[in-house]
Amino acid sequence: MTEFTAPKGIPEYYPPESAGFLAVREAFSDAARRAGYGYIELPLFEDTSLFARGVGESTDVVSKEMYTFADRGGRSVTLRPEGTAGVMRSVIEHGLDRGQLPVKLYYSGAFFRYERPQAGRYRQLQQVGVEAIGVDDPALDAEVIAIADEAYRRLGITGHRVELTSLGDATCRPAYRAKLQEFLRGLPLDEETQKRAELNPLRVLDDKRPEVRELLADAPLMVDHLSAEAKDHYEQVKAHLIDLGVRFSENPRMVRGLDYYTKTTFEFVHDGLGAQSGIGGGGRYDGLMAELGGQELSGIGFGLGVDRTLLACQVEGLTVGDQARCDVYCVPMGETAKRKLVEAAGGLRAAGVRVDIAYGGKGLKGAMKAADRSGARFALVLGERDLESGSAQLKELATGEQREVALDSLVAGVREALGR
Ligand code: HAM
């Protein structure tokens, strides 16, 4: 047992698996950039009240899972449990919403939730998210969902699906909420569930207990009580998704863990992951900006879980990311050769080739083993006799095929062999 271990519930990624982590994160970021989203880097902690107000006091995230502490100045701060509230705060603070709309931003990084750790559920989780603020256009909702779908596909994932629903708007939700509450009051629910029904009736719909599910079979659903405008909005989102070739299923009982959602709401699910099947989720949050003291502007976005998506790749047997540490592994035999190859490595790296060297005077056998382990395509071997003839041996590790490259045009020779 080592003296120090990582904090409980926090995944770490190191080579070679970390290549997959980077590849997932990059696939998400790249998909966002390709749709015109600009990068925003935000604080890892914020005023506690931002999350209390933005995410909702009655959510598990705020009431049970926040890492909240007083800093040395006595201010209550919280490690960010999610990204949307922070983005809104920054957009308002810096007046990003005073220019052209929508404001399209993406972010990538760690979030913190004090959850009960288990496979796929961590206390430090990684997300890539996008937020599009200021235009309430159903086509934008479809864009956001399609970006995520495309990113999963690019990684080679096929076992994901997206569930969709509408949570209504300010005109239809209050009436629906009252109707649902009235229905729930008529059921023989236990005390805790009754309390939840009074505080946040929608969340009761998510109850997983079979006996409660049975009682809820005839519960009124938001999608059947949408205002004309919200219904039309929802229909348009679906039509755009069909045009974009995004296959979705409707789940009118979907309950999200954050309170700010309105209208379009969605979740990406992967069935190979057991209980923690949500690999990404998001939706519209039209009242959030005003709630946080900004303009009355709409917004839509998603947060994609990098950790869980990497697990999904593993479940599907996909190798994502370049597991190789380098393209070329230099094997010097003797001091003069070493001097020459250290210099050559510098030149090759400057030319964009990934290069490592057998340091520490390894023998040929040990060095070739290290070359294999590095994942390099070629070993570049330089011995005494090669020095005399002015050339090095470039050996393709997979095939054993060997070719000579002239020492005075090493960079060009290696690049040619790599096809670059
Ligand atoms: P969320 O559904 O709470 O949404 O989280 C998004 C994704 O983060 C989840 O689908 C899941 O993949 C991952 N995730 C969440 N908690 C954990 C955990 N404990 N361990 C591992 N992965 C986790 C949001 O955070 C919203 N801010 C998304 C959004 C952006 N909505 C609108 N804009």
TrEMBL record:
Residues 23-312 form the Aminoacyl-transfer RNA synthetases class-II family profile domain. PROSITE patterns: AA_TRNA_LIGASE_II. The keyword Protein biosynthesis applies. Its EC number is 6.1.1.21. It is found in: Cytoplasm. One of its GO terms (molecular function) is histidine-tRNA ligase activity. It is an enzyme of class 6 (ligase). It catalyses: tRNA(His) + L-histidine + ATP = L-histidyl-tRNA(His) + AMP + diphosphate + H(+). It holds the Pfam family HGTP_anticodon. Keywords: Aminoacyl-tRNA synthetase, ATP-binding, Cytoplasm, Ligase, Nucleotide-binding, Protein biosynthesis. It comes from the Bacteria. Signal peptide: none annotated. Belongs to the class-II aminoacyl-tRNA synthetase family. Homodimer. This is Histidine--tRNA ligase. It comes from Saccharopolyspora griseoalba.
